C-alpha cells in the first residue's frame, strides 16, 4: 500500500510538472500571437 502511494505521489508530481510546462509554453505562444496580431492590425 505504501509503495502504491509513493508511486501515485511521484506520478502526481510529474503531472503537475508537465502541466506547469504546458502553461508556460501556452503563455509564450499567446504572447507571440498577440504581437503578430497587433502587427497585422497596424497594416
From TrEMBL:
It comes from Lentilactobacillus parakefiri. The lineage of its organism: Bacteria, Bacillati, Bacillota, Bacilli, Lactobacillales. This is Uncharacterized protein. It comes from the Bacteria.
